UniProtKB/TrEMBL annotation:
Cellular location(s): Secreted
Pfam families in the cross-refs: Cu-oxidase, Cu-oxidase_2, Cu-oxidase_3
Protein name according to UniProt: Laccase
Entry-linked PROSITE patterns: MULTICOPPER_OXIDASE1 (PS00079), MULTICOPPER_OXIDASE2 (PS00080)
Superkingdom of this protein's organism: Eukaryota
Chain ranges of the Plastocyanin-like domain: 34-147, 165-270, 385-513
Regions that span the bilayer: none
Record GO cellular component, one term: extracellular region
CDD domains reported for this sequence: CuRO_1_LCC_plant (cd13849), CuRO_3_LCC_plant (cd13897)
GO molecular function terms attached to this record: copper ion binding; oxidoreductase activity
Cofactor: Cu cation
Length: 531
C-alpha cells in the first residue's frame, strides 16, 4: 500500500491564497510528528509510518521567497530524515535531508528543525522520507504560490480540489478551469496519466513554468511534478457520462520489476447523476513500453524564456562529464558455492554510474566536507567518464561486474557543468529518472542510441530548454543537462527508482565555497543530528 496506488497526487492550490499574507516574505512554521497510524486502503488496515497521522502526509503551502521551518519529531523505531524534493536549498544544505549525505538520521525520540527559503521557484514540489524505503508512506505536497501580486503566466483556474487516487471522485462545473498538480511519489513506477474525453494543458514542471501545450496523456517519472490545466466541457451535456482519470506504468525494464496495474479516479459533472447508470468513458493510454511517446512528450517541454522568467542556461562548459548509467552485477557474498537472486547463480543485481556502485558512508558527507575531515569518509576521484568505454546500447561487455566506493566529484563554485547521461544495455536497457539535489538543471538535448560528441552538441537547445530537478534518461538513449554550480555544499544525485538507488545508482557532488560571504555554505544548526 502506497508503493504506487496512492502515490500519484493531484492537487489544486488556488483557494489557498487567502490563507497567506498579501505582501512581503513570511516564515511558515510546521511540526511533523512521525508516528505509526492504522490506515485502511483498499479494504486493508495496517499500522504504517505517517506524519501527523495522515497518509499521504500534510501539505506545505508557501510563496516564492518565503522561509519554511519544519520541526520533525521521530516517534517510530526507525531512524528518519525528510527531503524537500526540488527545493534549491541555497547555502542551506544541512536542511536537504538525504541520510548520510547532508545529515545523520533523526533517531527515535529525537527531533531536528529543517530551515530553508524558497528561491526562484513556484508551482508544485513534494517532501518525502530519505532513508531506507520509508518514503513509501512518508510523503506529501509542497504548494509554492507566486510572490504576492504576481499573476500566473497562464489562465487563472477556478477551484481548489485535492485528489488522491483511491476511489476518489472529482466533481466539476461545466466550462470551469481546474489546475491539477500531479506528483509522482511512487517508489519504482513511471506513470502515464490521462482523463477520458478531456485535454490537459501542461503549464509547469518541477516548480518551473513551461510554454503551455496540450496533450491527452502526461508522462511523469518518480520524483517529477507536473501542473496541468483541465477545462471542463462547456455544457451540461457532459454530465451524461462518467469520466475516468487513469494512471498506469510506463515500463521499459525487465518484466516483473514494475507494478503492471492501472489505478483510476472518477471525474463527474455537477449536479451529480446516478453514476451507476451513466456510460463510463475510459481514457486511451499508451502501450506499457511506448518509448516513442515518452521521447515525443519530453521534446514538447520548453521553458518560458521570457524577460520575467529567463532561461539562464550555460552557453559554455567548464566541467564536462559523461555518465554511463545502468545495471550490473556483483559476486554473491560468502563462499563460492553460495547463490543469490541475480542474473546468474553466482551474481546479484547492482547498479552504477561509470561502473561505480556508490557505498553509503556512516558519517554524513556534508559534515566531513565542512569540517575538512573527509579522509576515510569519501574520496574525490569519481570518474568523469567510463574508464573502459564500450558500445553502451549494443552488445554488453563480457564482464558486467562493477566496482564499489564512496567517490565524489569536487566542483569549484559557479562552474558551468554539463553532464551527458547515457543509458546502457547491460542486463537490458531501461529508463532511469535521475534526480539532482540542490539544483535545477536545463535539459539541453536527448536522443536514442549512443551519444556522439562530434554530432549531438550542435543540436542542443540553448534557447528555451526545460528546467527540471529530475529527468528520465531514455531507455537505450541519452540525455544532456547543464547547470551552474552556484550552491556550495554536498549534493546527492541518484536514480529515483528506489530499487536502483538501493543497488547503488547514485553519486555526490561537492561544491566548494565561493570567495564572497553570500557564496559560502551556512554553518550547521545546533540541533544537527550526529551519527
Amino acid at each position: 500500500m502506497g508503493a504506487r496506488c496512492l502515490a500519484l497526487l493531484l492537487l489544486h492550490g488556488t483557494l489557498l491564497l487567502p490563507q497567506l499574507p498579501l505582501a512581503g516574505a513570511a516564515t511558515r512554521y510546521y511540526t511533523f510528528n512521525v508516528k505509526l497510524q492504522n490506515v485502511t486502503r483498499l479494504c486493508n488496515t495496517r499500522a504504517i509510518p505517517t506524519v501527523n497521522g495522515k497518509f499521504p502526509g500534510p501539505k506545505i503551502v508557501t510563496r516564492e521567497g518565503d522561509r519554511v521551518v519544519v520541526k520533525v519529531v521521530n516517534n517510530i523505531k526507525d531512524n528518519i530524515t525528510i527531503h524537500w524534493h526540488g527545493v534549491r536549498q541555497m547555502r542551506t544544505g544541512w536542511s536537504d535531508g538525504p541520510a548520510y549525505v547532508t545529515q545523520c538520521p533523526i533517531q527515535t525520540g529525537q527531533s531536528y528543525v529543517y530551515n530553508f527559503t524558497i528561491n526562484g521557484q513556484r508551482g508544485t514540489l513534494f517532501w518525502h522520507a530519505h532513508v531506507s524505503w520509508l518514503r513509501s508512506t512518508l510523503y506529501g505536497p509542497i504548494i509554492i504560490l507566486p510572490k504576492a501580486g504576481l499573476p500566473l503566466p497562464f489562465t487563472e483556474p477556478h477551484k481548489d480540489v485535492p485528489i488522491i487516487f483511491d476511489t476518489f471522485r472529482l466533481k466539476v462545473q461545466p466550462g470551469k478551469m481546474y489546475l491539477l498538480r500531479l506528483i509522482n511519489a511512487a517508489l519504482n513506477d513511471e506513470l502515464f496519466f490521462s482523463v477520458a474525453n478531456h485535454t490537459l494543458t501542461v503549464v509547469d514542471v518541477d516548480a518551473s513554468y513551461v510554454k503551455p501545450f496540450d496533450t491527452d496523456v502526461v508522462l511523469i517519472t518518480p520524483g517529477q511534478t507536473t501542473n496541468v490545466l483541465l477545462r471542463a466541457k462547456p455544457t451540461a451535456e457532459a454530465a451524461g457520462a462518467t469520466h475516468l482519470m487513469m494512471a498506469r506504468p510506463y515500463a521499459t525494464g525487465r518484466p516483473g520489476t514494475y507494478d503492471n496495474t492501472t489505478v483510476a479516479a472518477v471525474l463527474e459533472y455537477a449536479p451529480p447523476g446516478h453514476i451507476k447508470s451513466l456510460p463510463l468513458l475510459r481514457p486511451s493510454l499508451p502501450a506499457l513500453n511506448d518509448t516513442a511517446f515518452a521521447a515525443g512528450f519530453a521534446a514538447k517541454l520548453r521553458s518560458l524564456a521570457c524577460p520575467d522568467y529567463p532561461s539562464n542556461v550555460p552557453r559554455r562548459v567548464d566541467k564536462p562529464f559523461f555518465f554511463a548509467v545502468g545495471l550490473g552485477t556483483t559476486p554473491c557474498p560468502g563462499s563460492n558455492n553460495q547463490t543469490c537472486q541475480g542474473p546468474t547463480n553466482t551474481t546479484k543485481f547492482t547498479a552504477s554510474i561509470n561502473n561505480v556502485s556508490f557505498d553509503m558512508p556512516t558519517t554524513a558527507l556534508l559534515q566531513a566536507h565542512y569540517t575538512g575531515q573527509s579522509a576515510g569518509v569519501y574520496t574525490a576521484d569519481f570518474p568523469a567518464s567510463p574508464l573502459e568505454p564500450f558500445n553502451y546500447t549494443g552488445t554488453p561487455p563480457n564482464n558486467t561486474n562493477v566496482s564499489n566506493g564512496t567517490r565524489v566529484v569536487v566542483l569549484p563554485y559557479n562552474a558551468s557543468v554539463e553532464v551527458v547521461l547515457q543509458d546502457t544495455s547491460i542486463l537490458g536497457a531501461e529508463s532511469h529518472p535521475l534526480h539532482l539535489h540542490g539544483f535545477d538543471f536545463f535539459v539541453v538535448g536527448q536522443g536514442t542510441g549512443n551519444y556522439d560528441p562530434s554530432k549531438h552538441p550542435a543540436e542542443f537547445n540553448l534557447v528555451d530548454p526545460v528546467q527540471r530537478n529530475t529527468v528520465g534518461v531514455p531507455a537505450g538513449g541519452w540525455v544532456a543537462i547543464r547547470f551552474f554550480a552556484d550552491n556550495p555544499g554536498v549534493w546527492f544525485m541518484h536514480c529515483h527508482l528506489e530499487v536502483h538507488t538501493t543497488w547503488g545508482l547514485k553519486m555526490a557532488w561537492v561544491v566548494n565555497d565561493g570567495p564572497l560571504p553570500e557564496q559560502k555554505l551556512m554553518p550547521p544548526p545546533s540541533d544537527l543530528p550526529m551519527c
